[in-house]
Amino acid sequence: MEGTRDAAAPDVCRSGLSAVAGDPPPALNDASWKSRNPGKPVIPPRSSEKLDAVQRAARKVAVEQRRAKQQAISDAVAELLEEQETRINEIAKAHSVLLEKVRLLITGETHYRKRREESLANVLVRIKARQVNSDLPCGQKFQLKELQEMVANDPDLQNLDEETKQRYLGELKESRSCKAIGVRSTNTAASRDVQATLKKIYGELQALAYRTGIYACMFVTRGHVYELHAATWFGMDNIMDFWEDRMKLSPDYIIKQLELWACNEEKNIEARDSLENMQKQAKNGLDSGFSSITKHLRQEKAIRLRFANFEQIKYKFGISYEGWPDGIPFSSPYKIQTVDEIRRLWDAIRDDSFRWVKMTVTQHHEYRKQVDARREAGETVSVPRQGRSDKGKKRKALNDENAPQASKKTRRSRAQTTPKSQEIITTSDEESDGGERV
């Protein structure tokens, strides 16, 4: 890998088995993500409907109409793009920049929108759609505006009691949760989901890089040998040179090793969410955030997070925290021995509801006054450091019991003393010739 890469064409590479159409043989169906996670909600696959002659004729007419409409839109867009290209050329020449940069600045925008909470209006539309669209073929189902009008004119849906409303809201929430985190029923569906989602992520990261100047890379691999999506790595600009120049590892080598490790693990959702695994992830998340907030203190040694003596850290450096889950004592994740509690802590770390914070000068001063008052009252604020086992006893030298122990300065000078050598070393040839050196 030499040189840098154009930002308009991010590095994307795939290794391993490529995605192919069709499910694995029946004997291998047990290796699907669904079969390895029994009891988890499953996203139902889309089933194709069989049409009779009349329905096929109606669909053909509808397809022709959509095709004509799409062609008219395409012609209008082509005319607009031609005008836009002319304007882009003018801007590029006026500011002496590349055409590609102007195009990316125009089109580099995000389409990400935050998901709204479940509302009663969405619930009623969903119920009405089930009632009127379940028996209709594709292309003839009622659209959103029509469904909203039906809901507004339906007295049964407008006069629901509170218990029924809450039940419908729960059903909608469960349906959304299944679509978001439900497992795919087949390996083919899982592979298509991976490809479509990664394509969106690549576009979002690339647009974010042009807006903010960040560098980003990612490695994605399958978790089982029978899964169909290929191992993939992605990097923008020349960030992949970092792995070769600094880490001395090529991205292809990294992704192959990652794929090998993941396939050997073969963990399902329950194994990944085990107590030991979540304890480790929570501890790494806490250490990472703590290192980020203490790196500006410029200490000779990095400050280590010790939960037993955290009050000393808070007293000396003014570091505190917010959002620790209620009902869980502030301690190391390895001391939390229930799955529910460690999952709550791990979820809080992942969604940033828990975070380390730097106390203000006033808050730090007030806290130090409180700690000093507690110490004057005789309270032990932190866990005392354990003393040496031979405290109070005279320690003797290891070499000679009667010899006095040398000081550190003397031992250092002895270690740095180099053996002396002759200024002139006589070679064997000079000795045999018996000559005298001048």
Spell out the blueprint of helices and strands.
Elements: E1 11-15, E2 42-43, H1 53-95, H2 99-107, H3 120-133, H4 144-152, H5 155-158, H6 162-181, E3 183-184, H7 187-212, E4 217-220, E5 231-235, H8 240-245, H9 251-265, H10 269-272, H11 275-294, H12 310-317, E6 319-322, H13 339-350, E7 355-358, H14 361-376, H15 408-416, H16 428-433
Parallel strand pairs: 2-3
Antiparallel strand pairs: 1-5, 4-5, 6-7
Describe the structure.
By secondary structure, this protein is mainly α. Helices cover 50% and strands 6% of the residues. The protein has 16 helices and seven strands. The strands form three sheets. Strands 1-5-4 form a three-stranded antiparallel β-sheet, with helices on one face. Strands 2-3 form a two-stranded parallel ribbon. Strands 6-7 form a two-stranded antiparallel sheet. Helix 3 crosses helix 6 (162-181). The longest helix has 43 residues, at 53-95. The protein starts with 10 loop residues before the first strand and ends in a 5-residue tail after the last helix.
List keywords for this structure.
438 residues, mainly alpha, extended, disordered N terminus
Query: Can you summarize the main beta sheet?
Result: 3 strands, antiparallel
**Number of helical regions:** 16
The percentage helix is 40-55%
Mean pLDDT: 78
Structural class: mainly alpha
Low-confidence stretches: 1-9, 14-23, 431-438
If strands are numbered along the chain, what order do they take across the biggest sheet? 1-5-4
- Tell the overall outline: extended
Tell me the β content.
5-15%
Q: Report the span from N to C terminus.
A: 59 Å
Number of β-strand runs: 7
What is the radius of gyration computed over CA atoms, rounded to a whole number of angstroms? 34 Å
Order of helices and strands: EEHHHHHHEHEEHHHHHEHEHHH
